[in-house]
Amino acid sequence: MSRQHLSSVLLAGAGLVLSGSALAQDRPVNALDEVFVTATRREQSVQDVGLSVTAYSGEQIHELGVTRTTDIVAMTPGLNYTVPNAESSQINFFLRGVGLNDFADASENPVAVYVDDVYHPAAGGLSFQLFDVDRVEVLRGPQGTLFGRNTTGGLVHFVSKKPQDAFDGYIEVTGAEYGQIKVEGAIGGRLSDGIDGRLSFATDVHDGYTKNRFVGAPDYNSTDSKAVRGQLLFKPSDALDVLVSGYYSKNDADVGAWQHQSTDIVNGESVLLGSNQQGVGVDCNLDGVVDATDRPPGADCFGYSDPDNDPWAGEFDRHGRVFVENTGGTANLNWRFGDTTLTSITAYQKVDRLQSEDTDAGPFPLIQPTFQAKTDTFTQELRLAGGHDPFRWLGGLYYFDNKVKGHYLLDLTNLGFVFFDANYTQDSKSWAAFSQVEYDLTPRLTLIAGLRYANETKELDYLNRDTSGLFEFLYGSDVAFDFSPSSVGDLAKHDDNTVNGRLGLDWKPTDDVLIYGAIARGTKSAGFNVGFLDETFTFASNTAATIPFGEEKLTSYEIGFKSTWGDRRTRLNGAVFYYDYEDFQTFRFELLNQVIFNTSAKVQGAELELQSAPWEGWHIALGLSVLDAQADNIPSPAGVLRKRDMVAAPRFSGSAMVRYEWPALGGHVGLQASATVQDHIYYDIQNVPVSLEDGYAITNLRATYRPENDRWEVAAFVDNVTNEEYLSYTFDFTGLFGFNQQAYGKPRWAGLSFRYKFE
What we know:
Elements: H1 3-20, E1 36-37, E2 44-45, E3 53-57, H2 58-63, E4 79-82, E5 92-95, E6 111-115, E7 118-119, E8 133-140, E9 154-160, E10 168-176, E11 180-192, E12 195-206, E13 211-212, E14 223-237, E15 240-253, E16 259-266, E17 269-272, E18 313-314, E19 321-337, E20 340-356, E21 368-388, E22 391-411, E23 419-442, E24 445-466, H3 470-475, E25 479-483, H4 485-488, E26 493-510, E27 513-524, E28 527-528, E29 548-549, E30 552-565, E31 570-590, E32 593-612, E33 618-635, E34 641-645, E35 652-664, E36 667-678, E37 681-682, E38 692-693, E39 696-707, E40 712-719, E41 727-732, H5 734-737, E42 739-744, E43 749-758
Parallel strand pairs: 6-9, 13-18
Antiparallel strand pairs: 1-2, 3-8, 4-5, 6-7, 8-9, 10-11, 10-43, 11-12, 12-14, 14-15, 15-19, 16-17, 16-42, 19-20, 20-21, 21-22, 22-23, 23-24, 24-25, 24-26, 26-27, 27-30, 28-29, 30-31, 31-32, 32-33, 33-34, 33-35, 35-36, 36-39, 37-38, 39-40, 40-43, 41-42
């Protein structure tokens, strides 16, 4: 996509804005609800923020049927996610093509996730239930000044509903297919003078939707999830409030149902193997000759092929399991004196994750990995903000202390190979100082400038042993890889200083139109490759020099507009952008190991979002993203450097929602349809054919009834109405074993829910 094409998208949208803004009137009739966000660390209408932001109110989250963190992807232009282990385990968000699909617990994503103003680094703890939500904010582009840590691509912020003086609450019960029973609720109000409280909870249980044909083994992709959150708001004076909160969640599920696909290598690329086709590209029996004796036609190196190609059925001999336990607490203090506010946010979080899976996706106990990790994180943020028109300012300090202890097991003994037992500890410490100022050059033109300086140290202590005796026999030692300061010195340490910043202009030609432009820089910290490292080049291709990878740097150039028009019944927002991506951290899978390395990339694209309530009872939302995301110098298995599409970066994606509500049956009846359309994407930076999802469309339907007093609501819904079969991830084992792993999204899902509100 050319830059001229991008500019035409923006100019077309701007033409609609400037023509439509003339229709705005002083008196809103059936106007859209205003959504307030804290994208600039102070509360503002989303239409007044000179950033590309998609925001959802708690009511919108409810109406869209959003129940988990990943559900927001469907209606958010430019936002995608991958699940390189399994649903309800590790989640990696991608914004405008920027993301990292590594599955190591030591890695952090360049699209940061915040919950109630607190950064959550552990990807294994990011798939959780959304309940009692005040709003969700998605900020596109580098947020390196105010949010700082690992926000190269942007961030997703989930904000819980806070305690208030007035008594309120709700209870919602959902029953759906696959035996699903979901219950959530909250209750809150004044506990005593100056103290408000709120207690929220959610449970979600359903059977597996992937049939397991292996006798005696459970069906896959079930859920047993529980969560609770408690909050106390202390208000000793009008100038001071302290919010103390704690949460606990647990998910214990049978997941990781990889679908099996027999594959072969043709001209250096992994391709699908036909059911009667003889594979001749993989040396399965390791005799140095690739021929018809290696494996039966249509089968992998173990002689297995999927008998029915049903995306929601398989033969899994191993009990795949994900267990994630998430615990944490936060103390958020705000002290106001004059026109200045001091904010302190102290937080601790702990994520325990255990996952086992049937990697070979067949009825034989051949490739059996287990991943276990404990992530402990402490953060402290101090902010001081003040000023008034025409000058507003903010400054702060941030501290981050994170420890990851990983224990990974890989059992290949039934193949006559190794049993790897890898243990590692990664310690990260970072501090930062930041500031941002806003100055009104004129009543309608504002200059924004921000700067952040950060220092981070990171150290890895890693040891992988083979407990099968094979390495001891072959090499005289059971050590497969030793990487620590004592063995490799400073190679096991990072100590980096970074500078991020933002310079922008906001112009309001009318009260209902904002046009903005900005240059922003963001960085993501350096790190280390971990997994089943092996310096013998038998089961991995690691040397000590390939374990560290450097920080990445992204410079963004963006122009956008926001508008409200048509008697405030319509909002039209848009942006075009160009990213200069240095030392882009990307991921490739080699042999039995993941490898993150640095290269360069270029990203350009545009988004348009429309929300409208054109007539009484109608609500329409449309979203569009066009994207061109290319990574340079990606090595092929033969070592040839090539340009490749970035992972989870569709050239086109769109969404639409139409809702109509009218008086009937002594209350109100509502009908809603939503749809998501996505162009093809790759799940592998090599862009091999078997990693391609060639595009899909998903439609959801929802019908509601609520009485005139609005105290309760009953809803019926059908998600994925057409039972669309679409890939949510792939892993290519063609070069080793002649098969490809495939993960599919959920099938059609219908149910009923009942919601009652307390007031």
